[in-house]
């Protein structure tokens, strides 16, 4: 083994952890640094859905994302990550939105996604507490959920077992250079040379890229989640309104909230989620919480009498074209990026890691990396 790691990963979120594990499994020596605790960034602030249902297909720009996710390793230790293959139900409240949902499902089916139309009359069989009067829906049996913090811990444990080093509370403050080339990182604890450096700093990826003198337009997109008191099991799938897909694809900076509701093994119900671009503003937004709660009650009237126990928020790593940044940076040879997964980083992490490791080890990538190129923004 070389004295310096082949790969130094900045960021021990789900993307960094998945890549570190897959790189170690491919025989690379790996060190992972995080300025805080592993999983302490956005990866501990989401809902843990691994969705195929919310991915638009047919557009060349987005289809690689979903296929990357579909190509992800799925079974390794899933039992220790709280994986629930519960399926998703997307519901439409009007005939117009049902038509749009049906068209999306048709495109997804052509790409190999299981998407089963559900008549209005049959929605109650899937979800007995849904509001009456909905126009219909689509069942996505491949949608699943896991606990992202457990997944981060598990992936890092697997990586360590393969020889990787994980160094929490180590902030990267700059880069080592050999001419144009990035040859390692600077930290308060000293310089760390490495064969290649991966920027997996989530919504902070732009700041890390700037330390290397390169522009990356990854920005935070804030999201709140409401958590109810524990209830008897009543919501079986991940259930969300058809409008959610449009919110995800929108670049609007203003507050958006379409209801996303799901039960958890502990009995609490997670109600998500808002989207707004307000920088790293951590202030609680009562209007955002109120809008989410009202929308969830419209979907599941039974929630009207239920107490919200707590809320939390996080910052999705948003990219202006809604595609992640994956691959080497020709502007700073030796520097690689894996960020900008916005609201799908849990689901896309393993596919991202797989693509990166293929490229790092000089193999052909399962998907072309051009749509994800870091320099595509000009
Ligand atoms: C409300 C909400 C709901 C969501 N729901 C889902 C969902 O259901 N499904 C899904 O797939 N995704 C979901 N997401 C998105 C998902 O959480 C993110 O896409 C994913 O967590 C990003 O992971 P990451 O590893 O890129 O970033 P992070 O988890 O943020 O990790 C980046 C790490 O980099 C570290 N770092 C930053 N700067 C430095 C530095 N200079 N030196 C060292 N370390 C540094 C940070 O400390 C952090 O730990 C949701 C997000 C939110 C906010």
Quick description:
By secondary structure, the protein is of the alpha/beta class. The chain has helices at residues 14-25, 63-70, 95-110, 120-126, 148-161, 205-211, 243-249, 286-299, 345-360; strands spanning 7-10, 30-33, 49-50, 88-92, 116-119, 136-140, 144-145, 165-167, 172-178, 181-187, 190-193, 196-199, 219-228, 238-241, 256-263, 269-275, 308-318, 325-328, 335-339. The two termini are 38 Å apart.
Account of the protein in words:
With 378 residues, the protein is α/β, with parallel strands linked by helices. It has two domains: 7-50 and 148-216 and 321-377, FAD/NAD(P)-binding domain (3-Layer(bba) Sandwich); 88-141 and 219-318, D-Amino Acid Oxidase, Chain A, domain 2. It contains nine helices and 19 strands. The protein has helices at 14-25, 63-70, 95-110, 120-126, 148-161, 205-211, 243-249, 286-299, 345-360; strands at 7-10, 30-33, 49-50, 88-92, 116-119, 136-140, 144-145, 165-167, 172-178, 181-187, 190-193, 196-199, 219-228, 238-241, 256-263, 269-275, 308-318, 325-328, 335-339. A hairpin with a 2-residue loop joins strand 9 (172-178) and strand 10 (181-187). Helix 1 (14-25) runs parallel beside helix 9 (345-360) and helix 2 packs across helix 9 (345-360). The protein is elongated. Bound molecules: flavin-adenine dinucleotide. Residues 10-16, 33-36, 40-43, 45-49, 171-172, 200-204, 208, 223, 225, 272-273, 314, 316-317, 339, 341-347 line the site of flavin-adenine dinucleotide (FAD).
């Amino acid at each position: 083994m070389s004295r310096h790691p082949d790969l130094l990963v900045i960021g021990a979120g789900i993307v960094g952890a998945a890549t570190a594990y897959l790189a170690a499994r491919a025989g690379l020596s790996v060190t992972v640094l995080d300025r805080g605790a592993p999983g302490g960034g956005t990866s501990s602030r989401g809902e843990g859905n691994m969705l195929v249902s919310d991915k638009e297909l047919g557009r060349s720009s987005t289809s690689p994302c979903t296929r990357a996710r579909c190509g992800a390793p799925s079974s390794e230790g899933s039992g220790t990550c709280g994986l629930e293959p519960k399926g998703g139900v997307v519901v439409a409240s009007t005939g117009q939105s049902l038509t749009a949902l049906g068209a999306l499902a048709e495109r997804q089916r052509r790409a190999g996604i299981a998407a089963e139309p559900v008549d209005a009359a049959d929605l109650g069989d899937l979800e007995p507490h849904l509001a009456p009067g909905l126009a219909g829906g689509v069942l996505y049996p491949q949608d699943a959920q896991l606990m992202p913090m457990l997944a981060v811990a598990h992936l890092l444990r697997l990586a360590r077992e393969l020889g990787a080093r994980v160094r929490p509370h180590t902030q990267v403050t700059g880069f080592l250079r050999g001419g144009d080339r990035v040859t390692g990182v600077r930290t308060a604890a000293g310089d760390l040379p490495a064969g290649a450096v991966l920027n997996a700093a989530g919504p902070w990826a732009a700041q890390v890229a700037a330390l290397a003198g390169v522009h990356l337009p990854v920005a935070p997109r804030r999201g709140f989640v409401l958590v109810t008191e524990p209830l008897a099991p009543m919501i079986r799938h991940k259930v969300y309104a058809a409008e959610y897909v449009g919110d995800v694809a929108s670049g609007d900076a203003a507050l958006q909230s379409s209801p996303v509701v799901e039960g958890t093994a502990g009995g609490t119900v997670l109600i998500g989620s808002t989207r707004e671009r307000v920088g790293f503003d951590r202030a609680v937004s009562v209007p955002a919480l109120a809008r989410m709660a009202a929308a969830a009650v419209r979907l599941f009237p039974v929630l009207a009498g239920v107490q919200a126990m707590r809320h939390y928020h996080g910052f999705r790593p948003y990219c202006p074209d809604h595609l992640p940044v994956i691959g080497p940076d020709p502007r700073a040879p030796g520097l690689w990026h894996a960020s900008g997964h916005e609201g799908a980083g849990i689901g896309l992490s393993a596919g991202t890691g797989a693509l990166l490791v293929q490229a790092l080890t000089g193999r052909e990538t399962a998907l072309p990396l051009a749509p994800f190129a870091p320099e595509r923004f000009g």
